Amino acid sequence: MPTLIAWGTADDHFDVAWAHWLRDTIPGAELVELPGARLFFPDERADELVPLLRKLWTARGEPRAV
Hints:
Layout lengths: L3 E5 L7 H10 L4 E5 L6 H4 L1 H15 L6
Parallel strand pairs: 1-2
């Protein structure tokens, strides 16, 4: 399953090393580091997150029935 890990590098509680571990643990995962972003960056920096999500969703194609 395509997986995007978007990680704020300035978070005080969640070191970027965890993002690297997730990337290495989840097959095919893509890691994007957002310099200076913190835990709640989706609200604060949506202009950076939305294009990443659109790229991921577009790459997956149309939804399929299961």
